[in-house]
Amino acid sequence: EEVVSTRPITFGAFVPQGWKTELIDIDGAEAKWAKAVEIAELAERLGYDSIWVYDHFHNVPRPSHEAVFECWTTLAALSQRTSRVRLGQMVGCAPYRNPGLLAKITSNIDVMSGGRLDWGIGAGWYDHEFRGYGYEFLPAKDRIAVLRETVEIVRSLWTEPDTSYAGTYFQLDGAQCDPKPLQQPHPPILIGGGGEQLTLRVVARQADRSNFGGNPDEFAHKCDVLRKHCDAVGRDYDAIEKTWSPEIHVRETEAEVRAVGGSTFGEPFESWQAGNLVGPPEQVIDRIGRYLELGVTSFIPWNRDYPSTETLRLVAERVLPAFR
Predict the structure, then answer these.
(1) Which range has the worst mean pLDDT, 160-169, 231-240, 258-267, 284-293?
(2) 201-219 b/e with 16+ CB inside 10 Å = b?
(3) Which of the chain's ends, N or C, has fewer CB atoms near its CB within 10 Å?
(4) 53 vs 119, 134, 202, 217, 224, CA distance in Å?
(5) What is the DSSP letter of 8?
(6) Which residues fall within 8 angstroms of residue 197, CB to CB, at 6 or more apart?
(7) Coil, helix or strand for 117?
């Protein structure tokens, strides 16, 4: 059954920050940062609705002593180099920062940017990074409980004069968060992750937006699970915006597309293409249309060819106009 949404269709673009070693061929930290700023500014000029960064410290697929620009300092800087695009994280790692501090950081960036923050948050998964930086890598159910408490605390600090909270993992006594975010009642909350019995239950209770992946059949299944959780807690399923954040690689011909070989992490071309936005513009438009039928209204893909801007430009010129 086709899903008809009244939400506008939006498209984001990641800023290359080094997490996937995409800046490795640029010499020197200053030049790498200049490239990140250049692409953020270009995405805004090309008409993208938002720019995004990851919240990670070590490279993937393995730590490699290659620059990774930190999520929140990156967004604070880019908030001053852009004027229109929204600013998001895919997604913040809840256990990495005390939620009181996180409320201050996010509120400040919303003010600094003129009300452009999209707050992305998740439970975390990169165990090597947890251990490397001294964060306890709790079992999944506990990390998701940390996520839930973090969202409750940040929302309270954004909206209430004072916050006291007695949770399992966090205790606050009269915390204040001023200035408050500019957006009312608060910046949108995007919760990332597709864990069916834990994460999606938190999404049903707490999120304005969800983000999980998969090919169309897998995505449809996750949506069905989320709908059941919404029914169980009395939440309107359609009130939660569905976002999708695949990899994207676009060239004019199939042969040019195939020349890239596969995903960032070496996944074979055929399976990579099946679960991502990979192909000439017409194929990418068709794939986006399939996800629109599943209820997705916001697309936030990672550009496989960074630091090249060929995909970024082709999508802006050949794909976005089909949905505007």
Answers:
(1) 258-267
(2) bbbbbbbbbbbbbeeeeeb
(3) N
(4) 11, 22, 23, 27, 28
(5) P
(6) none
(7) strand
The residue type at 278: V
- Here the tokens at position 57 are 């410290």
**Three-class secondary structure of residue 242 per DSSP:** strand
- Asked if 164 and 176 touch (Cβ cutoff 8 Å), the reply is no
Nearest CA to 14 out of 300, 311, 219 is that of 300
Residue tagged 């919240």 (tokens): 55
Query: In this structure, what token pair is assigned to residue 17?
Result: 């920050």
Given the DSSP bridges, would you call strands 189-192 and 163-166 parallel, antiparallel or unpaired?
unpaired
3-state secondary structure of 315: helix
Structure tokens at 146: 């940390």
Could you tell me the two tokens for 242?
């569905």
Specify the 3-state DSSP secondary structure of 255: helix
Per-residue exposure over 117-140, b if at least 16 CB sit within 10 Å of its own CB, e if not: bbbbbbbbebeebbeeeeeebbee
Interatomic CA distance for residues 66 and 151, integer angstroms: 32
Q: CB atoms < 10 A from the CB of 264, how many? A: 19
Contact between 92 and 144 (Cβ < 8 Å): no
What is the average pLDDT score of the chain? 95
Using the structure block, give the residue that is written with the tokens 């996520």: 147
What pLDDT does residue 1 have?
Answer: 38
Cβ pair 90, 22 in contact under 8 A: no
CA separation for the pair 73, 77 (Å, rounded): 6
Which residue from 46, 102, 44, 45 is spatially nearest to 71, judged by alpha carbons?
A: 102
